[in-house]
Amino acid sequence: MATLIGGLGTSHIPAIGGAIHKGLQQDPYWKPFFDGFPPIREWLGREKPDVVVMFYNDHGLNFFLDKMPTFAIGAAAEYHNADEGWGIPTLPPFKGEPALSWHLIDALVEKEFDIVSCQEMLVDHACTLPLKLFWPDGDCPVSVVPVCINTVQFPLPKASRVYAMGKAVGEAICNWDSDKKVAVIASGGLSHQLDGERAGFINKAFDLQFLDSLESNPEWATQFSSHEIVEKAGTQGVELLQWLAMRGALTAAGPRVRRLHTNYHIPISNTATAVMALEAA
Length: 281
Ligand code: DHB
Ligand code: FE
Hints:
11 strands, globular, alpha/beta, eight-stranded mixed beta sheet, Protocatechuate 4,5-dioxygenase, Chain B
């Protein structure tokens, strides 16, 4: 059976792609953000996952407001970046893992999660940036299964539902008939609000409590409604639901996780940024 080795989370601001393209990793504005990654890359270099399952939200690229699935899973052989253009100008397509995609789709539908299956899927900065941040050099060494969770247009799935969906994904990874090593990634957050009267809103106390909860009390955030999460983390900070799905998946690998590394930095653009790695115990 496949092995679920751990989970990673990172923020996904489009401007990060521009900074990568321009080589600004040591620039004083960017350094505190990029400095969060080397310890995690070291762990990835040792553990060498073959496949990643990426929990992320599309930002109006593959799904626009007229058709918004709550949960969608990519089942393509490759994924092309078609972002809005602030990021990395050219990126080769990322390799898919259709066998795992279909295994996840089958398992989730069997567990009564109504999944949109996507044999073609364009991806944006939320899917491409984590791959470039965790594997900056050369071709991306992992294949990808994108799992898109709507955090963009209400009604959003409840935190408890997202956690349960993540759990079902983790269970399916662990019973996938394959000798591959799989990691789960969450892309989004943490607190930020890009629009409206509260534009620029950041909530450090909530973010830090949320990050701590992922290690020791993963169900903590499932007490909140989506509106409460928006209130606490901002209209786009609700992307932290992606992290809850990632943590839900890890419950399938064992009763505990070991926190390998966290970095939290305010701000990049309008966002409180975080990166974290959790090893399955
Ligand atoms: C920003 C953050 C996001 O999550 C996003 O998708 C786009 C922009 C920002 O802070 O600029
Ligand atoms: Fe976003």
